[in-house]
Design goal:
Chain A is an all-alpha fold. Chain A has helices at residues 2-8, 10-42, 56-83, 86-118, 126-147, 151-183, 198-230, 235-244. The chains are: A mainly alpha (245), B alpha/beta (202), C mainly alpha (225).
C-alpha cells in the first residue's frame, strides 16, 4: 500500500508519465509503420475479396481496441470506486474519448469494407451492430461525465455506469449475434476475418500492439493535462509553472 | 460519542476547511457558525455520511461511520435544508413514512403533532401547510424517531417566536436524555446545558 | 417480522399512495404508449399484413420509450423535497429500499403497459395466437426495463438535461430485452419454438434483479453527495 501511494501520487506520476510518453510514442510509430507496411504491401492478395480486404488490418484491431478500452475503463473505474485512487479516476475518464474514437474507426472501416462486399454502406451485420451499440455506450458515458461539474463526483458516477455497461456488453453482443442469425438472409455474407495466413497474422498483431501503445500514450498525455488542471492550487504545480516560464 | 479527526472538506476543487477535529459527548450540543458558503452544510452532511470527506474521518463510539453503515444511521436523525416532506401526503402519513415501519406508534404521532400545533392539519395534504408549519413537521420527526444523535441544519429558520421557544425546549429535553445535538443557526440559541461546543468556520 | 420487511411495506404503501393522488403522472406514460403505437398505421398505411409484421417491434419499442419517459418520476420528486435524503439516512439497506421503489414504479408503469397491450395488439392486427406471448413477454421484460432504468435515473439525478441524458444511458442497455421480447412475439407468428426466448428473458430479469439495485443504490449515494 505504501508503494501504491508513492506511485499514485499525482506529482510522482506526472514526472514518470512525462519520461515515458516519448518512448511510448516512438514505439507506437514504429509498430504502426511496420504493421501498415506488412499489411498493405507484403501480405498476399485475398483470392475472394481482392485488395479491399486489406482494410481489415485497421478494422479488426480497432474493433478489438474498442472492447479492450471499455474493459480497461470499467476496471479502472472499479478500482477508483473501491480504493478511492485519484489516478485511476483520471485514467478511466481519459479512456472514454480514445475508446469512442476506436469504435468510430471500426464503424467507418467496417462500412467501407462492406460497400464492395454487400453493395451498401451499411448492413445490419452482427459485429457492426454490436460496435454501434458500444459506440452509444461510450457516448452515454462521456455525456454523463460532462454533465457533472464536480470532477470526483463525475468520476464516481461514470465508473458505476461503466461497470453496468461492462456487465451488459457480453449480453448485448450475444443478443445481437442471435438476432442476426435469425434475421440475416443467407445471401448477405458476413464481414469476417478471412482464413488467416501467417503473413496476414503478423501485420494484424503488429497493428493491434501499435494501437494498444497508441492508446496508452494518449491516455498518459491526457492524464498529465488533467493532473495539472486538478492540482492547479498546489505548490508543486505553481513551482512547475514558474520554472517553465 | 461522536468524533471528527482531521476532517477536510472541499466543494468542487475549492477547499472549505481542513484539520477540523472535535469530540462531542452525550448531553452536549455543538453549535456551528460561520458566514454563508463557509461549509456549514457540507460539514453536517459529512458528519451524516452523505458527503465524502476529502481527508480525515468521522467516528461514532470509536469506529468510523463508514464501517458502521446502517448501525450508525440507526442512531442518527437529520433535518436538512429541505424538509423531507412529501406534499401529497398528510402530516400524519409523512411522519409514518419517515419512520419506515419502525416505531410508528400512532399515539406518539398524535401527541407530537398536538405539541407542535399541527394537530388541526392532520388530515390535510402537507402541500397546503405554510413554510413554518412544514419546518415544524420536519422537526416532529426528531421527537418520533428517538435517535440519540441529532444533526440539524438551520432548524429554527422560518419558525415564529413561540415555535422557537418550543423547539428550544425539545432540544433541552433531548440533551437531558443524554442525547447529542449538532446544529447550525444564525440566531443565538438559548439552551442551558452542561457544555456547548462552538465551532466557527471561515 | 424483521424491521426491513416492515420498511418495505411502509415505503411501498407510501409510493402507491402518492402516485394515486397524482394520477396524471401514472396515466401520461400509458397514453404516450397508446399514441405512439397508433401513429405507425398512420405513417405506414393500414395494410394488415404490413402491420402484423411490424407489430411486435412497434409495441415493444413503444413500451421501451414509455418506460423511459416515466423514469424521471422514480427518484426526482423525492430528491427535490428531501425525502430521498432521509431514505438514504434510514437504518435500512438502501439496496432494499431502491428495489421497493422500483417495484412500485413497475406496478404503476410496467403493469399498466402489459394490461393495455392486447388492445394495441388488436389495433395492429396481431394474430390472436400471439396475444398471450406478447403479454407474457412484456410481463417478463418490463421489470427489467424499470430496474435498468433505475440505475440511469439515479445517475442523472439533479443534473441539467437529466431527462434526455437518461435516455442516452439507458436505451443502449435495453437492446437485449427488445431483441428477445419482440423476437418471442415475432417467433410465435412465424411458428418458431420460442422457449429459449422466454428462458433468456427470465435470465435477464434474474440478472437485473440481483445487480441493478446495487448499482442504483451506489449511484444514489453518489448523486446525493
Amino acid at each position: 500500500m505504501q508503494y501504491m501511494h508513492k506511485y499514485a501520487s499525482p506529482k510522482f506520476f506526472y514526472t514518470l508519465a512525462g519520461k515515458l510518453t516519448p518512448w511510448m510514442a516512438a514505439l507506437t510509430a514504429v509498430l504502426l509503420v511496420a504493421g501498415l507496411y506488412l499489411g498493405l504491401f507484403v501480405a498476399p492478395v485475398d483470392f475472394q475479396q481482392g485488395e479491399s480486404y486489406r482494410i481489415m488490418f485497421i478494422h479488426v484491431p480497432a474493433a478489438w481496441m474498442s472492447m479492450f478500452i471499455y474493459v480497461c475503463m470499467a476496471g479502472a473505474g472499479a478500482i477508483a470506486l473501491v480504493w478511492n485512487v485519484k489516478l485511476f479516476e483520471m485514467f478511466a475518464g481519459n479512456c472514454a474519448p480514445v475508446g469512442a474514437s476506436f469504435t468510430f474507426l471500426a464503424l467507418v472501416t467496417g462500412s467501407l469494407w462492406g460497400k464492395p462486399m454487400w453493395g451498401a454502406w451499411w448492413a445490419w451485420d452482427a459485429r457492426l451492430t454490436s460496435e454501434l451499440i458500444l459506440f452509444f455506450l461510450y457516448i452515454g458515458y462521456m455525456a454523463l461525465e460532462a454533465s457533472i461539474d464536480d470532477p470526483r463526483r463525475a468520476a464516481r458516477a461514470s465508473a458505476i455506469l461503466a461497470l453496468v455497461g461492462v456487465v451488459n456488453i457480453p449480453v448485448i453482443h450475444f443478443s445481437v449475434e442471435w438476432w442476426n442469425t435469425l434475421h440475416q438472409p443467407a445471401s448477405v455474407g458476413k464481414v469476417g476475418t478471412p482464413s488467416i495466413h501467417p503473413s496476414m497474422l503478423a501485420p494484424l498483431l503488429l497493428m493491434s500492439l501499435g494501437f494498444t501503445f497508441y492508446f496508452f500514450t494518449v491516455a498518459l498525455m491526457r492524464m498529465r493535462n488533467e493532473i495539472l488542471e486538478r492540482e492547479r492550487h498546489t505548490t508543486w504545480v505553481a513551482q512547475l509553472l514558474e520554472s517553465k516560464s | 460519542m461522536l468524533e471528527a479527526v482531521d476532517l477536510e472538506c472541499v466543494r468542487g476543487d475549492r477547499p472549505l476547511f481542513s484539520h477540523l477535529s472535535f469530540r462531542l459527548k452525550p448531553g452536549e450540543l455543538m453549535h456551528v457558525t460561520g458566514v454563508n458558503g463557509s461549509g456549514k452544510t457540507t460539514l453536517l452532511r459529512t458528519l451524516c455520511g452523505l458527503t465524502h470527506a476529502a481527508a480525515g474521518e468521522v467516528r461514532w463510539n470509536g469506529s468510523t461511520i463508514h464501517e458502521l453503515g446502517d448501525d450508525y444511521r440507526s442512531q442518527l436523525a437529520y433535518v436538512g435544508h429541505s424538509n423531507g416532506i412529501q406534499g401529497e401526503l398528510t402530516a400524519e402519513e409523512n411522519l409514518r413514512a419517515a419512520c419506515l415501519g419502525t416505531a410508528a406508534d400512532t399515539t406518539r404521532i398524535q401527541e407530537t403533532l398536538k405539541r407542535l400545533g399541527l394537530a388541526p392539519y392532520r388530515h390535510f395534504p402537507s402541500k397546503v401547510l405554510s413554510q413554518g408549519q412544514k419546518r415544524r413537521l420536519a422537526l416532529a420527526r426528531l421527537a418520533i424517531l428517538r435517535k440519540s444523535l441529532w444533526i440539524l441544519d438551520e432548524p429554527l429558520s422560518a419558525l415564529d417566536v413561540n415555535s422557537v421557544v418550543l423547539m428550544t425546549e425539545i432540544l433541552m429535553e433531548h440533551l437531558a436524555r443524554d442525547g447529542l445535538i449538532i446544529m447550525t443557526s444564525h440566531q443565538e440559541i438559548d439552551v442551558e446545558t452542561k457544555t456547548i461546543l462552538q465551532i466557527q468556520l471561515d | 417480522m424483521p424491521n426491513f420487511l416492515k420498511a418495505i411495506g411502509c415505503l411501498l404503501r407510501r409510493d402507491l399512495t402518492v402516485a394515486l393522488r397524482r394520477s396524471t403522472d401514472v396515466l401520461t406514460p400509458l397514453v404516450f404508449f397508446i399514441i405512439v403505437v397508433s401513429l405507425f398505421p398512420l405513417g405506414l398505411g393500414p395494410e394488415p399484413s404490413v402491420l402484423r409484421t411490424i407489430a411486435p417491434g412497434v409495441i415493444w419499442v413503444a413500451a421501451l420509450l414509455a418506460t423511459m419517459l416515466s423514469l424521471n418520476r422514480l427518484f426526482a420528486n423525492d430528491h427535490a423535497d428531501g425525502t430521498l435524503e432521509q431514505m438514504a439516512l434510514s437504518p435500512h439497506p438502501l439496496t432494499v429500499l431502491v428495489l421497493t421503489k422500483v417495484a412500485a414504479h413497475w406496478m404503476l408503469t410496467g403493469l399498466p403497459l402489459v394490461l393495455i397491450s392486447p388492445l394495441l395488439a388488436v389495433q395492429m392486427n396481431l394474430p390472436e395466437s400471439a396475444m398471450g406471448t406478447l403479454v407474457l413477454s412484456l410481463l417478463l421484460g418490463t421489470p427489467v426495463l424499470s430496474l435498468l432504468g433505475a440505475v440511469g435515473a439515479a445517475l442523472t439525478l439533479g443534473l441539467r438535461g437529466g431527462g434526455v441524458l437518461v435516455s442516452l444511458l439507458v436505451l443502449p442497455l435495453y437492446t437485449p430485452v427488445l431483441i428477445f421480447g419482440a423476437g418471442a412475439v415475432a417467433g410465435v407468428i412465424a411458428g418458431i419454438d420460442i422457449e429459449a426466448h422466454f428462458s433468456l428473458l427470465a435470465a435477464f430479469l434474474a440478472l437485473a434483479l440481483t445487480l441493478a439495485p446495487w448499482a442504483a443504490a451506489a449511484a444514489l449515494r453518489v448523486s446525493l453527495d
